[in-house]
Specification:
Blueprint lengths: L8 H6 L4 H16 L3 H20 L2 E8 L4 H14 L6 E5 L2 E8 L2 E8 L4 E7 L2 H9 L3 E4 L11 H11 L10 E2 L8 E4 L8 E8 L4 E8 L2 E8 L3 E3 L1
Parallel strand pairs: 3-7
Antiparallel strand pairs: 1-5, 1-6, 2-5, 3-4, 8-9, 8-12, 9-10, 10-11
Length: about 240
């Protein structure tokens, strides 16, 4: 029996397929390339946190500021001027002195005027951050924000709606002003103008929306209701 010639071990090693090695090498390289490193993951997380913090910082809310009484307009102007100097005006959308328009009659003439709703306070629509808080507190005439323990507390939605309804009357309705009626139902009054001038009686009802007053007066011994414009009546 003839022995077959054996190949040397070195030749056998050289004859092994190289494709497996290349495939394994490519797979390994691909795995290394696709797998995120710890540094990349941390950087992505930090970027996400920074973006979320930025979005939270940009939130506009309505706040109430305590200010020096009878200086509301000048303090508001000073605050807006200081914010502009500091380059922070984009954080202050609106700062208002809450007022309403009222109407009153004097000497038979009707006139309207602005009346402060909350003397000694401003209402600001703004973003709260370290810079804006500093600008507010460093503006002369401003005491602080209203809120628990000195921390700015946003106004409730119903409070904002009530204030804005007064300072921004609907454009489709003429702003005649809210009448100032200095008496109430049951009060003794005197009629100072019109057909029943110098008659006295007591107030039966008040229609504040239309500025009308119903007064019970004595005519020929009988108690009779008459409806009059509120400015024709004065308290006795």
């Amino acid at each position: 029996m003839t022995d077959e010639p054996q190949q040397p071990e070195e030749e056998l090693r050289d004859a092994e397929p190289q494709g497996a090695e290349e495939s394994a090498g490519e797979s390994s390289a691909g795995d290394v390339q696709d797998a995120p490193t710890g540094g990349d993951a941390a950087s992505t997380a930090a970027s996400g946190e920074t973006e979320a913090a930025g979005q939270e910082e940009e939130r506009f809310d309505w706040y109430i500021l305590k200010v020096a009484s009878n200086r509301e307009e000048s303090v508001r102007d000073a605050l807006l001027r200081r914010a502009k100097i500091e380059g922070l005006e984009h954080y202050f959308d609106e700062v208002i002195v809450p007022t309403e328009t009222i109407s009153e009659y004097k000497n038979g003439k009707r006139r309207t005027k602005k009346q402060k709703i909350w003397p000694g306070y401003l209402v600001a629509h703004m973003v709260i951050n370290d810079d804006t808080w500093f600008v507010v507190r460093e503006t002369p005439g401003i005491g602080d924000f209203t809120g628990a323990a000195g921390r700015p507390t946003p106004m409730q939605k119903h409070e904002v709606e009530r204030v804005l309804a007064l300072v921004r009357p609907p454009s489709e309705k003429p702003d005649k002003g809210r009448p100032v009626i200095s008496f109430k139902a049951g009060d003794r009054v005197k009629i100072n103008e019109g057909t029943f001038q110098n008659f006295e009686g007591h107030v039966e009802a008040i229609d504040e929306a239309n500025g009308l007053v119903t007064v019970m007066i004595n005519i020929f011994g009988r108690s009779t209701p008459v409806e009059l414009p509120y400015w024709q009546v004065e308290a006795v």
